[in-house]
Amino acid sequence: MNWQQFLTFNSTKRPWHLPILAGLCVGIPLLVGYYTNHIEGGKLASLAGLVILYIQSNNLVNRMITLMTCGFGIMLSFSVGLLFSFHPMVAPLILSVFSFGVHFCLYQLRFTRPPGNFFFIMVAAMAISLPFNPDKIPERIGYVGMGTMISCVLGLLYSLFTLKKNQTDDITWTPKNQYVNTLESITFGVFVGLSLAIALLFKLDNPYWVPTSCVAVMQGVTTKHIWLRSSQRIVGTLLGLGVTWLIIFLKPPLLVICCSMVALQIIVEFLVVRNYAVAVVFITILTIFLAEFNSVLIADPNKLFLARFIDITIGSLVGAVGGWVLFNERIHYLATRQIRRTRLVLRKKHSPKF
């Protein structure tokens, strides 16, 4: 492995003000939750605020349609997770089927640019790992809905100020063989579901960290890139946990944490397209504050940080294996041949006989 890639910063065409917009979409729900004494609801709304990262088109109408559609998709992902979190045997199967459907449908809709399927699967994994509580389902979905609405409003205002007239889209789409998308979707579904099953089997405290890390690693574009992302995620997580431990040691007030998360989101969006390893350091801090900042974290941070490192390491390794399958030409060839044979058999079986 070339360790220089850990320190190489790539160039990007991403506008400098987009990370600031992302920070506002995450920060505003958090601060509203803090000042209204509904911090847990603010966390859910800020999580949904990440839908702003799907703001890609250079056409105002197309951009807003895409943003609102993705907002609905985030709400659907969260709802599916909540509704099927009632049993540890059902959850991995549902998450597997859902991940397959998300990847398959996004390709059919020609929506393949990053972040792609990541946030839909991440939100579903987080929701399906929550304790099943039917009474809280409408309330939680409502918070997520408010987060998507805030992002849509901010996205509209941002677009009105930044989009130029008569600007055309530069989005390109590379068609694939009809079987390739099916195989990729199956691979995503199998390994995301498997990662959650492993987390539940070992009774990890917050199992959603494992499938989230798995799908993050599988976002790579080649086998080499996926293994690089896996190692970057593990190393970056270790460094991020160390920085988080130092922050918790200082025991900052909750308001300071909320404000810091806005800054962290801005930093993450600035770095993630330039250097993934460095970005993961700040992603780790942000996600721990977003998901774990409570009395347990303050009382025993050493135990919690060790658990998070184990979770992310397992997920990254499962994702690396999934990535190897995803880009293995031999497996693709054999699987495609088997799918074709199955289709021919089914076609002959159901063909009319005279």
From TrEMBL:
Species, as recorded: Adhaeribacter swui
Membrane topology, as annotated? Multi-pass membrane protein
Residue ranges annotated for the Integral membrane bound transporter domain, each copy included: 195-321
Question: Under the cellular component aspect of Gene Ontology, which terms does the record hold?
Answer: membrane
Q: Where in the cell is it found?
A: Membrane
The organism's lineage?
Bacteria, Pseudomonadati, Bacteroidota, Cytophagia, Cytophagales
Q: Which residues cross the membrane?
A: 16-35, 64-84, 90-109, 116-134, 140-161, 182-202, 239-267, 273-293, 305-327
Which keywords, in A-to-Z order, does the entry hold? Membrane, Transmembrane, Transmembrane helix
Q: Which Pfam families match?
A: FUSC_2
* Record has Plastid as a keyword: no
The record's section on InterPro entries has: Memb_transporter_dom
User: Under what name is this protein listed?
Assistant: FUSC family protein
Top-level taxon of the source organism: Bacteria
